[in-house]
Specification:
The structure holds two protein chains of two kinds. Chain A is mostly helical. Helices cover 74% and strands 3% of the residues of chain A. By secondary structure, chain B is mainly alpha-helical. The longest helix of chain B has 35 residues. Classes of the chains: A mainly alpha, B mainly alpha. The interface between A and B is large, with 63 and 65 residues.
Chain lengths: 280, 286
Amino acid sequence: MDEKLSLYDKIFKPRLITLSNGKIVMEKRSRKPLVILVLILATLLSVHITGFKFSTIMKRGYQFWDYLFRMFPPELSYVNSIWQPLFDTIKMSILGSLIGALAAIPFAMLASSNVIKSKIVVVLTRLFFSITRTLPTLVTAMVATFVFGLGTIAGTTSIAIFTFSYVGKLLYEQIETVNMGSFEAMESMGCTKLKAFCVAIIPQIMPGFIANSLYCFEGNVRYASILGYVGAGGIGLIINQTIGWRYYSRLGMIVVILFFTVVIIEYLSMWIRNKLVGEI
Amino acid sequence: MAEAKRKERFNPYRPGMTIQEMYEARPKAYLAVSFTLLLMVVIVGWSSTALADNSSTSSDGAAVIKSIFYGLVHPEFNVLFDFSRQGLPALLLETMCIAFLGTIVGAVLAIPFAFLGASNIVPAPVAMVFRTVVMAIRTIPALVYGLMFIRVTGPGPFAGLLTMSVCSIGMISKQFIESIEDIDKGILESLDAIGCNVFQKIRYGIIPQIAPDFASTLIYRFDMNLRDSSTLGIVGAGGIGAPLIFAMGGYKWQQTGAILLELIILILIVEWISNKIRNKLAHGER
């Protein structure tokens, strides 16, 4: 009975049940009604603010297919002008993911509380990761174009920043769950922290790290359309051009090519990731 | 059996070896490692050609970064606390509403794909087809969806929310498929054995198993949607995106700083809350 009651339990008194041996236990009231009430209120508010109307979708929903029909049949002859930007996008993704993922390793080491004992360093590095992660891709890409000028360098930078934050967060979470035995053994033999980290922890985190980086690389190919909007090179550039000039059949061709690229990359990376995870 | 025998034959370790000897007898994959390294070098070399066209690198990059940081540290306070209809707090609320409803509509759209794409519910070829459909849905860039939906609803938050929901389908259904494929079928069999009908089986056998995972996925997706909401500004689909882009395009760094600051703080708070809830969902009440 001396269990602490939260505010919710004070308002909705828990049910008391007397067991056969005379002990009284409490069954707390379910939180479900409160959660459902909050969800309903939030939904109503959102419907009001966004102006969501089912009738509009019903009435004008067919318009959605309008552009899709204009995209098909795709203009096959346009294919030759797609390859260059497509390869640019893939190159940007590879390079950006690589740079970002490599840069994430030292920072992730600083952010894991089982390696670094200083609490301030850990918290500050994590805050740094959080802030980089909250920066929208659009903003980093736009700033990058201001700094590096229009082109693929800007796109690579922005992808690298995104990958850095994403892989870094997963990495330090992973480092905190590794087996610390070998790390401590290396340290007790007189290795420095860095050396012990390299030989004892990196082999443990490598498969997961590579798998996460590959997953990120997959996603980065899809961010390309946003990068193109701000002029950061790649296939997004021609997507914006075709939208702007209303060459919808060309847009269709781009989407078809993009689809096959994404499918190939996804299956390739899934295959590699399965191999990696299977090895541990 | 054959596998075990093969392993036995190629096992380099013999009883009675010292640790040093065992270490030296470890399997060495020089060929595989050097081949992988070579492949990596070739791929990176090929992709580094993307950096070749650095002709347009502007010289005042440092100045731009400096002014952005200056703007971040000195945000325009009258923009920060403008509680009118066009003010930032109102736009942030709108962004949150778009992300919230977008997640819910996305989940509703994703559920059929998830069940039809789970290989333990439908035959494998059918699952394959639906997964490919999801992949196709995910491939179309957000910009294109934005265009399509603006045609349906006109510009504004409504179009933004529909775009966001369709863009969420891919990730949500992928996660849903994973949790559906993890369902323990033994529970369903025992419910069968005590004579439950289909609805009881769904209510007591399936929903309790998948609900925490589903909730966790949705909360995470809400997080992501909030982060991606700036993209919607490009197509004029409501929320904080458009003012952000205008501010940046017009080199108004103090205004950009104010918008980014509020966005970052909001996202950090939401992320913190959502992490707490998801931890609770994953590890129980305590």
